[in-house]
Design the sequence.
């Protein structure tokens, strides 16, 4: 007898077919109705049991969370709520789940509670839906780049450089913690370390992607990224996934065009392919928002918000224009910002980004031409000598979702910049080589994958859109 997924049973399997189905029990009502789910879809298949035909001990084991195998016939449903159901002939218990101790009972659990049960939380409708959307988004991202002439490039995870110059790195070492070899000056001697130098987990694959773009033309990375920033916020992870396209011969305008088109296409993909899950997540969000004060509720429901992004142009604004808007804004004048905006050159905090997106422009915003002082060393200096060709994309509810730039391709300018920032030329000798041999205008950006998933699913905390989140003081599982 053929084994089917729940999705197949609900959509394509002919009636009166004899079927086998494996899954986990969601609920078992009245010793008669099993709602069975196997993860293939949000919906359950109803299995109807004639309890008189079955052993009482077996029926007892059919509780929420148990893994079972059901044999039966797919028939038109007699009851409401579903079109088809299985008339059960035979049940095998793979593994039972004790209702006294199984934490995922059919009732509402808080997201905080479920975070502590991260190995089981994907058995809830919410997390299963989020993770299916996450999977679909990854596929859409690869598909977008593969269809547009990009090559998938694997950046190293262990590196010797700090691409972002922020110094928020996890060290990688095999030296003896208690008794490390020391130099004459008394410092830890990394020459004796595994790689013969100090190394860390990558904060970005960009620098290496630049090397590859300068031969393959258009490349992208999609991999894990690590930042030891002690930010306990709903938008920061210590381990997250980043997508970093890098394109030879692209200037900043072409870079912005690509980023906008890319985001729209991957969101369109899930609108087309994840309808049920998104509808479920939209309803979840509406229910959650009912518990909030009116002022904090979002103006658009989830699907409307996703369609809005796909259908409208992102607003492109220079940093200088944004500062003017912020300086003259109500919250700034009324001293409502935690970090007041007084002068040009101030770094933008997430409260400012969200004001611009959510209150002022009410659409995704691309901010560009930032002050050189607040951006990384590799960004191309503008003619004014004080701004760089940087761009950040800001999203409602999220703040910064993309950070990118046109890269400094001029050897002399780059060297000056590095010297001013105290970056050792010897450490980045190979990066400078790229400017010595066949240098060219090039650009790229980084999209924080979990921030995209947050936006796409309407979840509120980044810890709830990655299977096993790594955050300060938390690396369980
Ligand atoms: O703006 P960032 O730091 O840019 C770079 O790393 C560049 N090298 C990218 C490039 O041009 N190739 O990071 C890019 C994006 C951010 O906009 C944000 O979405 C995400 O990565 N991000 C994080 N996501 C989750 N947790 C964190 N701690 C993050 N830090 C950055
Ligand atoms: Mg950034």
Sequence:
């Amino acid at each position: 007898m053929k084994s089917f997924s729940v999705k197949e049973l609900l959509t394509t399997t002919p009636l009166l077919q004899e079927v086998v189905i494996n899954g986990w029990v969601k609920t078992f009502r009245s010793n008669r109705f099993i709602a069975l789910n196997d993860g293939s879809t949000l919906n359950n298949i109803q299995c109807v049991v004639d309890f008189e035909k079955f052993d009482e001990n077996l029926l007892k084991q059919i509780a929420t969370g148990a893994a079972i195998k059901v044999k039966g016939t797919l028939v038109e449903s007699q009851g409401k709520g579903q079109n088809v159901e299985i008339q059960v002939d035979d049940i095998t218990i793979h593994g039972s789940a004790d209702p006294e101790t199984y934490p995922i009972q059919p009732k509402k659990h808080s997201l905080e509670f479920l975070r502590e049960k991260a190995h089981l939380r994907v058995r809830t409708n919410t997390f299963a839906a989020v993770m299916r959307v996450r999977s679909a988004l990854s596929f859409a991202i690869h598909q977008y780049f593969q269809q547009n002439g990009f090559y998938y490039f694997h950046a190293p995870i262990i590196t010797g450089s700090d691409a972002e110059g922020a110094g928020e790195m996890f060290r990688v070492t095999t030296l003896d913690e208690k008794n490390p070899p020391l130099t004459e000056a008394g410092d830890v001697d990394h020459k004796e370390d595994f790689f013969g130098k100090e190394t860390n987990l990558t904060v970005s694959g960009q620098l290496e992607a630049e090397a590859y773009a300068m031969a393959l033309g258009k490349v992208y990375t999609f991999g894990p990224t690590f930042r030891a920033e002690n930010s306990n916020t709903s938008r920061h992870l210590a381990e997250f996934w980043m997508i970093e396209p890098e394109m030879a011969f692209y200037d900043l305008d072409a870079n912005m065009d690509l980023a906008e088109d890319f985001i729209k296409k991957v969101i369109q993909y899930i609108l087309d392919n994840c309808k049920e899950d998104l509808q479920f997540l939209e309803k979840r969000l509406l229910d959650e928002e009912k518990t909030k004060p009116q002022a904090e509720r979002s103006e658009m429901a989830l699907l409307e918000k996703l369609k809005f992004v796909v259908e409208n142009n992102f607003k492109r604004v220079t940093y200088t224009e944004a500062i003017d808007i912020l300086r003259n804004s109500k919250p700034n004048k009324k001293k409502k910002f935690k970090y007041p905006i007084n002068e040009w050159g101030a770094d933008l905090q997430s409260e400012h980004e969200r004001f611009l997106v959510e209150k002022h422009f009410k659409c995704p915003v691309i901010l560009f031409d930032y002050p050189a002082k607040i951006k990384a060393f590799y960004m191309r200096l503008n003619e004014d000598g004080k701004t760089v060709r940087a761009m950040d994309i800001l999203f409602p509810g999220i703040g910064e979702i993309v950070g990118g730039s046109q890269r400094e391709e001029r050897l002399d300018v780059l060297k000056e910049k590095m010297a001013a920032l105290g970056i050792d030329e010897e450490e980045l000798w190979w990066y400078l080589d790229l400017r010595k041999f066949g240098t060219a205008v090039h650009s790229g950006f980084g999209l924080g994958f979990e921030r995209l998933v947050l936006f796409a699913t309407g979840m509120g905390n980044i810890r709830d859109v990655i299977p096993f989140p790594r955050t300060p003081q938390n690396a369980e599982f």
In short: The longest helix spans residues 125-147. The first strand starts at residue 3 and ends at 4. Residues 163-164, 204, 206, 227, 229, 236-237, 240, 242, 244, 400-405, 444-446, 448, 450-451 surround 4AD (ligand 1) (CB under 6 Å). The chain has 14 helices and 17 strands.
